[in-house]
Amino acid sequence: MIESGVKKEEYRGIKPYWLKRLALYDNRDQLIGLNPLGYTHIRFRYGYTARTMMFKVEGMIIGRGNPEWGAPTDKDVFIIRLGKRVDEEHVYSLTITERQAKLLSYACDQFARCIQGQDWSFQDLMESAWEKRCKEATGKMMDKEWDGGWYAMRHEAEEISHQIKKRFWGLERNSLYGIYYDDTADILWDIHQVIRHQLWLDRHDNEKSHITVDAYEPMRVGDEPLAYIVNISNEQ
Question: Among 80, 89, 143, 217, which one has the highest count of C-beta atoms within 10 angstroms of its own C-beta?
């Protein structure tokens, strides 16, 4: 019914999982608003296939839904009002391993920061390249003597990074651009958020910290809808 345009609402139960994502409370646990994560679109998937359809989110309320559209008859639900279907020329599905997911997340994070002129990202790349050469030559990544030594290299990488940032981004030390500076960087950052949060979800409970940034739900900052990721390990 959604695909045909008959069903104009989607429902979610008022349960802890959805309360965390769709409701906003004050410090007295009083409901003060909905959609705190700023969802702008909702994507429906046909089972476990790659086929999807996406709609704009026109609004969100709590109330009684239409039982003919799947809402319970005796309780309130989150009612997500669907707007216009978003036509997407291509939607892709990519199957990757855990290590590939980690590397993709890292690459999106690093390149987003490079676009924003964050000099420690340049510095990290320089230091990693030097350490790789050092290990090949000496068997150690942080040799104090080879090629001037690790500490001298690190100081040089820091100075070069500052010079690059000032020359091309016009930024002084301890200054940087962040989100909303460049849309490409914002989209890359969103992809990074989605992957790192899924990796956090997939850890064993005794390996999780609930105060690190990867524990937080992704919040979209780019112009594209948030990417969708699901662990299919147990389905194969």
Answer: 80
